[in-house]
Amino acid sequence: MFSKHACQSVPLDVLSSLPDNVIDEILMCLPLREAVRTSILSTKWRYKWCRIPDLKLDYKLWQSKVDKRSVLKKFTKIIYHLVTSHDGPISKFILSIRGLEDSPVLDKLIYFLSRNSVQHLELDISGYYKHKLPSSIFTCLRLMHLSLSGCSIQLAPRNFKGFDTLICLELRNMTISSKILENLISNSPLLDTLMLHQNVYFGIIEINAPKLRAFEFNEMEGSICLKSTPNLQDLTLWHKNYHVGSRNHFKSFYHLEYLVLNGHSLKVLAVAAGEVTTRLPFDLNSLKQLCLDEIYLRELDVVSSAVFLIKSFQHLQILEIQVEDYDNDMSALQCLELEAFSDVKFNHLRKFELSCFTGSDREMQLIKLLLAKSPVLENMRIHPLPDYDNASEKLKNEIPVLLNTLQRASPQVEVVYVFGS
């Protein structure tokens, strides 16, 4: 850590003789407050901080135990000093602040950044009210990474043609119209990574992103349709309003390697398969890892949907399931019987992990099924539901013994029961 004490212990002539590139590296390793303080070291250092291309302004800069007015006052002072003193391009800018209501200073800052060739911009300004971003956000035409949280976008300039260089877009806790969001995505031709978390919009958003490789969708409202995403490799769907349209859209998954679904999105995908009741008529050979969260084994449609997908992804290497199973209804058990998988083998499955295990018959049947149908399985880890007191003795004593009696297709599989972790 480059502290004030350390500076004082180094002769000034040594500090002044450091090459410019070394000084720049030192300054970029320091928090902004400390970087500005280096201006007292010598005449050569006085304005060096003004050329830092990477700036991070986090909550530590304006922590206040007094009131919000103090936060706004500090923010205004720092931004004014930055805008009037900084010289040169700003390639990366990160701002994190709480309790900042609509402030014209923030609008001026965004305009300043748009004029200084910002390429990586992160704004986290969450508060009681969402700050309305100015139109100058759309003039940051060199953006490659854009992350916005706790604000709103209500209008886009009519002449906005998209971000030609944008690679990563992350929106969290935003209020934005579906039309603007849809246009923002489709008019960013190089978009590789898209993350949408807890945003507010209405209607169905069509995702047209030919180069999109990774997509996370975790929303409370709004819906999406993966209309054109032929190069998806990493997909997380955590929502009940995902729209597929027909089973033909599964063809967009041909390059998918990693898939995360919750119970709602799992059912929607299975429904999208239409009349297909056992598995898809084509192979999705690229999918290597499938994670299913909040899977209610007591619900027949959830279990049948999970079975449908597991059968369709026979080249899986890693399968992770977090179950929710709290009653004794046996209606869904038949979906997990070995006879239902008579024509299926998981010839590539090497790792299986089951979380929130309670020892139910459905869970045991799932374990039995995968052990019997996975000839190259190497590792099976079972994690009990934390603090599940009612079945604790059974889980501790009976389940490990029972697991050792189950038939195994793989001679090298290690079954690990992780009780108490």
TrEMBL record:
Domain FBD: from-to ranges: 342-418
InterPro entries in UniProt: F-box-like_dom_sf, F-box_dom, FBD, LRR_dom_sf, LRR_FXL15/At3g58940/PEG3-like
Organism domain of life: Eukaryota
TM segment ranges: none
Xref: SMART domains: FBD
PANTHER family per the UniProt record, alphabetical: F-BOX DOMAIN-CONTAINING PROTEIN (PTHR31639:SF187), F-BOX PROTEIN-LIKE (PTHR31639)
Name of the protein: FBD domain-containing protein
Organism: Solanum lycopersicum
